[in-house]
Amino acid sequence: MIKLKNVMKTYATPGGSLNALDNVTFEVKEGEFIAVVGASGAGKSTLLFTIAGLVTPTAGRVSVAGESIYEKSASFRARLRRERLGFVFQTFHLLPYLS
Question: For 25, 27, 51, 57, which has the most beta carbons within 10 A of its beta carbon?
Answer without folding.
Answer: 51
